[in-house]
Amino acid sequence: PGADILAGEVESAITLVPADGWLPPVLLTQALDGQGVEDAWDAVERHRADLVASGLADERARDGMRRNLRSLALERMARDLAVRADDATLDALAARVISREIDPATAIDSILGTSSPEEG
Question: How much is the pTM?
């Protein structure tokens, strides 16, 4: 009985959230007898087809993979850094930076085994 009222409230709330031009439909389903489930699934399939047709599915997949790859790279870099920059190495580099023998960028390059872009 209260599902219709709740659905109306959800529809109203959805319109308050900025969207990219698409508002999800609010569909009523009932698990007990499966009522509305087919309509809900059809709506999911239509939305997926729209995403594919508009190119948004590929864009979202690419964006998600980009985030995943960046996260994996950062995890690997953190593991490598823990091996390359033990406390003794960091202490020695910190002392050299404090004494102004090297600058922080050079210390980081030493840890990473790279050179600054300015150095070529």
Answer: 0.60
